[in-house]
């Protein structure tokens, strides 16, 4: 048990933005909201998953919708109380703690906002170890946990609880309501007991985000290593490409950001071209028509000078980026995991090959 204060917020937001693989929402907006909540209500207690009782009611909190919409249609600050009331009334018991659903810029911060404003602890665990675009894409689905009852509210005060026959149906119905509400809503979903959190959650994700954030901030204090070497070492990442953004094609469709970013090689990649496809999060990276990484492994773009993560909604012409691959949580490489988040689910015409194997083949 420890607390999250203003200093920790900075590092968590930065590290989670990297783990978001391009998605998860704008870290800047989320960080401002979290800092405001900490200043008003005080630090948030962060619990190790092993510290929570097996029968405690734990509720993941998140924002749902297209990240570009979220940047313009922010939360109003009352969502946490509305969602808490809906869930606690449904179960007839109090919520013991909140947890993040994914690692990503905004969605790493929103549960902290909720925890601070209601005086509840936050559990150091999530259901992805990264960010994914659809609600059913969590490790808890692999464990047979239902996404519903799922509570949803928008900034106008509209609220609803879904009871669905499958997690995919939760995604379909909630996505439709999200579109009707302007493309961005707050949700509480996958309510579960502490025993289930411990069995299927991605543990220590908040702590990992904080550690990564600190390392990114200090990446240029690397001693005899170059900043790039240091970055790849502390992230455990694979260098996929280095280039300048020459084109960005994007559209918002069905409350998702879809698109392609084209990179012209620089430095040792000069003369080559790469493409990264995304649906909120980066899905595939192709270098000279050869796939070098796919979901569920993380494909992350970072600034070549600062190594700050570049989200899909911040991609712009002329920016120089390093494309890095990070191995995903091991549960995603199982048969059930790949059914949920493998490349073929997203329409990519390739089987999943682990990042480390693809990179070895390229070499």
Keyphrases for this structure?
single chain; 363 residues; alpha+beta; CV3147-like fold; six-stranded mixed sheet; 18 strands; S-Me-THD_C_sf; S-Me-THD_N_sf; DUF917 domain-containing protein; S-Me-THD-like_C
Task: Provide an overview of this structure.
By secondary structure, the protein is of the alpha+beta class. 32% of the residues lie in helices and 27% in strands. The chain is built from twelve helices and 18 strands. Strands 16-15-14-13-12-18-17 form a seven-stranded antiparallel β-sheet. Helix 1 packs antiparallel against helix 2, helix 1 (6-19) crosses helix 9 (205-217) and helix 2 (27-41) packs parallel to helix 5. The chain is globular.
CATH architecture of the largest domain: 3-Layer(aba) Sandwich
**Got a strand count?**
18
Kindly report the average pLDDT value: 93
CATH class designation of the largest domain: Alpha Beta
> Which outline best applies?
globular
How many structural domains can be distinguished in the coordinates?
A: 2
Order of helices and strands: EHHEEHHEHEEHEEHEEHEHHEEEEEEEHH
Largest sheet: 7 strands, antiparallel
Q: Going by CATH, what is the homologous superfamily of the largest domain? A: CV3147-like domain
Domain S-Me-THD N-terminal: 8-163
Organism: Sphaerochaeta pleomorpha (strain ATCC BAA-1885 / DSM 22778 / Grapes)
InterPro entries: S-Me-THD-like_C, S-Me-THD_C_sf, S-Me-THD_N, S-Me-THD_N_sf
Domain S-Me-THD-like C-terminal: 166-355
């Amino acid at each position: 048990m420890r607390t999250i204060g203003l200093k920790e917020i900075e590092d968590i937001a930065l590290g989670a933005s990297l783990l978001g693989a391009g998605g998860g929402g704008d870290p800047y907006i989320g960080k401002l909201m979290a800092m405001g909540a900490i200043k008003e209500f005080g630090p948030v207690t962060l619990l190790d998953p092993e510290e929570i009782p097996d029968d405690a009611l734990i509720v993941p909190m998140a924002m749902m919708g297209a990240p570009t919409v979220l940047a313009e249609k922010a939360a109003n600050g009352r969502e946490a109380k509305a969602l808490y009331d809906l869930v606690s009334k449904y179960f007839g018991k109090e919520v013991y703690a909140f947890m993040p659903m994914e690692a990503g810029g905004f969605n790493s911060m929103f549960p902290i906002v909720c925890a601070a404003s209601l005086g509840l602890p936050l559990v150091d665990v999530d259901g992805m170890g990264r960010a994914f675009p659809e609600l059913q894409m969590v490790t808890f689905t692999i464990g047979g946990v239902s996404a519903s009852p799922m509570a949803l509210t928008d900034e106008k005060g509209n609220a609803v609880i879904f009871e669905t026959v499958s997690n995919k149906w939760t995604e379909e119905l909630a996505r439709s309501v999200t579109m009707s509400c302007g493309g961005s809503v707050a949700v509480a979903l996958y309510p579960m007991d502490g025993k289930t959190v411990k069995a299927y959650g991605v543990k220590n994700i908040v702590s990992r985000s904080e550690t990564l954030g600190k390392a990114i901030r200090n990446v240029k204090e690397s001693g005899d290593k170059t900043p790039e070497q240091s970055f790849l070492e502390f992230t455990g990442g694979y260098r996929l490409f280095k280039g300048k953004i020459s084109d960005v094609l994007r559209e918002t469709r069905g409350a998702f950001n879809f698109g392609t970013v084209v990179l012209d090689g620089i430095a040792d990649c000069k003369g080559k071209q790469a493409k990264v496809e995304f649906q909120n999060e980066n899905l595939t990276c192709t270098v000279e028509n050869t796939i070098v990484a796919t979901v569920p492994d993380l494909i992350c773009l970072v600034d070549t000078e600062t190594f700050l993560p570049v989200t899909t909604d911040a991609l712009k012409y002329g920016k120089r980026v390093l494309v890095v691959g990070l191995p995903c949580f091991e549960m995603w490489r199982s048969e059930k995991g790949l059914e949920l988040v493998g490349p073929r689910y997203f329409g990519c015409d390739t089987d999943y090959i682990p990042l480390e194997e693809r990179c070895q083949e390229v070499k």
